[in-house]
Amino acid sequence: MKTTTSFLRWLVAPLLVATSVSGESIAQINGDHFLSPLNGQTVTNVTGIVTAKGPDGIWLRSIKPSRNKRVSDGLYTYGSVLAKNASISVGDVLVVDGKVSEYRTSKDYLYMTELTSPKVRAILERGRKVEPLVIGKGGLKPPTKQYSGLDNGDVFAVPNNQSLVSVENPLLEPGLYGLDFWESLMGELVTIESPRAVGRPNKYGDTWIVGDWDTTGDNNRAGLTVSAADGNPEAILIGSPLDGTKNPQDTKLGDKLDAITGVVYQAFGFYRILPLTNISVVESLAPATAPPTSLVSEGTCQGVTMGSYNVENLYGGDAAHVQAVARHVVQYMRTPDLLAVQEIQDDSGETDDGTVGADETLAALAAAIRSFGNGNGNGNGNNNNTAAAGGVAYNYTYISPLNDESGGAPGGNIRVAYLYRTDRLRLRNPNPGNATTANEVLPGPELKYNPGFVDPSNAAWTNSRKPLAAAWELVGSGSNNSSSSKASKASKASKTLFTVNVHWGSKGGSSSLHGDARPPVNGGVEARLAQAEATATFVASILSEDPAAAVVALGDFNEFAFAAPVASFGSRSGLADLDEAAGVPPAERYTYLYDMNAQELDHVFVSPALARAQRTRFEHVHANTWAAYADMTSDHDPSVARFDIC
To answer: For residue 476, what pLDDT is reported?
Structure first.
């Protein structure tokens, strides 16, 4: 202990005002690594100015800054009795004793240094002015590329989980790494000017934002799109307000917010700022809703449209959800000729009663699309340049999975399926397989089963969905009795269109980008690597028969294009990423919002013949990522492509 005899004499009068007290400093407690060098030790005479009060503790700042950029001058002092002490206010200079602790609620999270069991020895001063540190222009700036030196340059690397911050406890490098930057400010009072939302709030109102500092991956909606090795560490989460107010839950991507002042904190797997009061939206972007796709079927082999949409646990008994998806198909996707859907539940929904068929669910969706009406095909009711849609007849095809073996919501038996416009497409030589029959590519090429599962006995599909392969031809193709219309003439020269609808295993079990494991755990990545191999092998066999075949693999790959499973699929299958082939700008390649990142889990891959075609087009339709949580129809955006298969 560093208490002197003179100080003990001074302490006889509790909370007596004094001018200075020696003891452990906040900088010494924090240190220049992630973990405190004094962890577990009792410290005395810690002097700091109160910068904020919360329901369970207070925050202190050193009287004299350490001037070491690696070291925070802020410290969370945990204790509800102290927090509720009305005689202690922001601006008071306190002398406290306590025990240094490293706290986390899960082994997957980073530790937070705090002072526990605090005892106030004295109040040295009252009413001192507290100025927050500024993060942004003219102040501190977070790194924009790397999260941690332990990631070896790639936060998405495979293999992952190769080291732990809590074990390595590296020296902080706040100018290089995002985690180090926020750790170097732990417990500090900070201000963010001109913040904007880069994600939607969770159920607690916690919202990811960036301020007026440099950012990477900026998309046209003011979000941050994830890219290879760059998970956007410059974003920070805004948590629960310290004054007991609530953050809004209707914040949308790109919303401009009022300035935010709060304390840097660590909880539930993420660095965050706890604001002094609730965040406030000052402006939302226009238009409020995304425009529909500009891609419309030409009704010929020169302009076949195809859509992909994860419709998030669609169950026919949920009429409101069915109608909402139908509206998106009509207004946003403009009734594509072929629609690959994922997450179709069985006819009893999440009731685990052995039902595996989904005819009622798919028939309900087809009926809703057909009865939707002759709308103008746009998503916001303001665009009169789109063609009439609605009233379109779709048929559907799918294969039921084995009961309780396809993952997803228990009892729901989710599966992939196709809906196709009966006036445009039909299955070529229909011959459906079943849950256990493996599709094969026959000479021609032709499919043994149409439709049929890809390698359903492969262990890669354990608790996951099997890809559904199908072959299509235009209505009227090869018919001598068809009319002399443009559609009939073009369809005679069309190719067989092969499709593989995928929904690979989920990323459940992943750790947060702010987590202890480095690189972060990518849940299910080994299963997706195996699924990529099985899917790619099947697709490659089609191209082996006919290198000029028209082949499309599409759906929810549950992985980024640059991550190992999808990258491996592209190279092994012989297909090209349609985003690349169609020239979609990298920052606009997103179909999903998760934490701080706009990201693309849904992909379309095409054979060389389609990738090289001049008329190939592709668009992501941000029907859900631009919406407030309550207005979402699915957690994924749909995508639409147009191909020339003549």
So the answer is: 80
Average pLDDT over residues 471-479: 80
SS3 call for 643: strand
Q: Which residues, listed in sequence order, are joined to residue 617 by a DSSP beta bridge?
A: 642
Token pair, residue 634, equals 């699915």
SS3 for 577?
A: strand
- For residue 574, report the phi and psi dihedrals to the nearest 5 degrees: 85, 5
In angstroms, the CA 156 to CA 511 distance is 11
Same domain, 109 and 142: no
Which of 238, 253, 286 is the C-terminal boundary of a domain? Answer: 286
Q: Tokens for 187, please give them.
A: 């417990």
C-beta separation of 295 from 617 below 8 A: yes
User: Are 311 and 393 found together in one domain?
Assistant: yes
Q: Report phi then psi at 19, rounded to 5.
A: -100, -30
Phi, psi of 184 (to 5 degrees): -70, -10
Q: Of the residues 218, 252, 286, which one is the last residue of a structural domain?
A: 286
CA–centroid distance for 515 within its chain = 16
Give mean pLDDT, residues 431-454.
Answer: 98
Q: Is residue 524 one of the residues assigned to a domain? A: yes
- Which of 232, 253, 138 minimizes the C-alpha distance to 191? 138
Report in angstroms the alpha-carbon separations of 443 from 34, 201, 446, 541, 545. 61, 52, 6, 10, 7
8 Å CB contact between 126 and 159? no
Instruction: Tell whether the model's pLDDT for residue 389 goes beyond 50.
Output: no
As given in the structure block, the two tokens for residue 298 are 């030409």
Q: How does residue 632 score in pLDDT terms, banded at 50, 70 and 90?
A: very high
* % of residues, the chain, pLDDT over 70: 91
Tokens for 106, please give them: 């899960």
Asked if 566 and 517 touch (Cβ cutoff 8 Å), the reply is no
158 and 74 inside one domain: no
Residue 269 to residue 514: CA distance in whole angstroms: 6
Residue 355 sits in the same domain as residue 479: yes
Token pair 């990738």 is at which residue? 611
Match 């009022």 to its residue by tokens.
258
- Tell me if the bond preceding 586 is cis, omega within 30° of 0: no
Q: CA-based Rg of the chain, rounded to a whole angstrom?
A: 29
CA separation for the pair 115, 131 (Å, rounded): 22
pLDDT in tens, 207-235: 999 999 999 999 999 999 999 999 999 99
pLDDT digits (tens, 9 = 90+) for 107-166: 999 999 999 999 999 999 999 999 999 999 989 999 999 999 999 999 999 999 999 999
Say how many CA atoms lie within 13 Å of 5 toward its Cβ: 0
* Amino acid code (one letter) for 332: Y
Residue 43: both structure tokens together:
């410290």
Answer positive or negative: Cα dihedral of 509, 511, 513, 517: negative
Assigned token pair, 98: 């306590």
**Considering only CA atoms, which of 189, 208, 181 is closest in space to residue 54?**
189
Is 528 domain-assigned?
yes
**Residue 41 is assigned to a structural domain of this protein:** yes
